[in-house]
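User: quick one, fold this
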Amino acid sequence: MKLRLFIFFAFAFFTFKPLFAEEGMLIPSLIAAFENDMKAKGMKLSAADIYNVNNASIKDAIFQFGGGCTAELVSDKGLLLTNHHCGYGQIQAHSSLEHDYLKNGFWAKNLAEELPNPGLTATRIVRIEDVTAAVFAGTSSKADQSTINANIKKLVAEAIAGTHFEAEIKPFNYGNDYYLMVKETFTDVRFVGTPPNSIGKFGGDTDNWVWPRHTGDFSVFRIYAGKDNKPAAYAQDNQPYKPLHYLPISFQNRHEGDFTMVYGFPGMTEQHVVSEYLKFIIEKERPARIEMRNQSLEVIDEGMKASDLTRIQYSAKQASIANAWKKWIGQIEGLENLNAVQLKQDYEKTYKQMAISKPEWAKYAVALSTLNEMMAQGTKAEFNYAMGVEYFSVGPEYFKLVRSLEDFSTNYATYAASNELENRIDQLITSANGFFKNYNAEVDRQIFYNLTKLYLTNTDQKLSGLTFEQLTEQIYAKSVFTNQDRFMEFLTSFNEKSIKKLQKDLGFVHFYAFFNPFRNEVVPAYRSFQTGVNKQMQIYVEGKYVMFPLQKHWPDANSTLRITYGQLEGSAPTDGMRYTEHTTLDGIVAKYNTGNPDFELLPRMLELHAAKNYGPYAQGDDLWVCFTGSNHTTGGNSGSPVLDKNGYLMGLNFDRSWESTMSDYLFDPNRCRNIVVDIRYVLWVMDIYSGAKHLVDEMTLMKE
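Assistant:
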């Protein structure tokens, strides 16, 4: 059996202690190696039911949604479930003061009312193949990147020849292994329905990353295809996609200890990082990023409370910024509570002792020492990069508008000479209308003021000329980028002289005075640093497999399809605290009665609760809302199906508990729990609460 066989491992349990099957994110094509263990925990499926290239299997119902979440098919008409927060951008884009779907929800009554979403995709994995040997064919070493790249290009071309599929080859374990992913991507994905924010975002920032949880975090979409059932661009006559497989709905009662399996696209974990890097994350990088987001969120939250229009404009932005912000706070707390740096150092001591026991293993000890030295001395490049990401990506919004003009202003003469000028201006106007629909200059001004001050504090960047206050005032009073009328007038009258005007615009000048050093100096320095780190990490991780072949290993998440399994169970994360495994509708009303605005409800919820109108969706006298499992999840698993022992859909994964947020670096089976919205609550909201029973009727409900 190959040493590359990816099975579970955690550095904190490196010595021969009991191993917990809940940890790790398995590559589906290797799932047969875990079939016996999964069956021992209660699973009734076979490995071929879960992943099969030649026949339909559960994998064919799992889709990557929009590139950053997971979704699953639940009907033979392409009906797709994902999280409310995953579909939030689309929900917000379709909302207005006249049609406030954020506040009131939305349910298409028929196919004709389902709303298109330009740019939204849903991607299915056709097959996964270990191509490590082929990628390394003819190489002089694992560092022979030119040969590796040539081999990858050839393998990808061969994999999709004569098909409508796409493919990519991704490195695993820092380039020690490579896997081919063949994909089918659908581009006509329509918005079908969503509960109101009072359900889909119930608990808001108060409950985010917290258990007990009562959030109905789901939204509904539908995949459409051409008449041949293959992906096609949006067209009115496209038909609902007929899937190879869709998930039946688990209507059986749940019990603590039930088998659970999560199938999705986890984004990123960093289990292999060395102790000095983890120390840097805990003590410097995360605190600085948290403070940057603190400053943005204070402004956005105040603006959203003051105006319904601002609430609609900034709902999706606020949710995106706040999600990582609160996660990072919990991550630091969890890593500190578990003394994670010391655990890393203890493991590294054992690793080094093994590495020096044989001459041929000496390189592994050298790699580990080099990594810690690099991290102790060279994290400035990474810190500056992190600050730039916060400032330029989630900071002042007008920066996006400046970037949208970069190509046009640079290549104006080319567009004018090729008669493309008018068309390009029309494209910019359309884009700008979308930008200003969700823009509030006063909110952006205060964000600019707060974050620019922090960016100057945390980096070597300096202001020149105006004072900080003068710069802020003049950009938002005069720049063409901070006012819709000014920007539209500038675009519609654009000519050669406009280039000179642009170069005098203070908003434009400031952005490039800061952004050019970032992309020309900081980004290359960061990439150079990471290249050196990755070279050593490849050797370091190889050492784990070579020196400890009987230990259990799994590859870091990298946005590829993975499986994790565990149980439906509560937890006892700290002394004296015991969390139960599920919550009910009673808890929603109890939270509402606290008066916290994050627990606001619409009257219908209170009426249905008072009448105990739970329809067929209750378990005993209670309507389950959420439950927790001991599955190892991370970002990207949002929307992932949580399956029972028969492969039926129990619920939608949407979060981790506060005590679990450090699991990207360190998974503790006693603390780490994923949070799931029960599918029976989802269907109750559709049917009883919202009157969208026609969608429930599309699904296959398994009651036995």
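User: anything notable?
Assistant: The mean pLDDT is 93.
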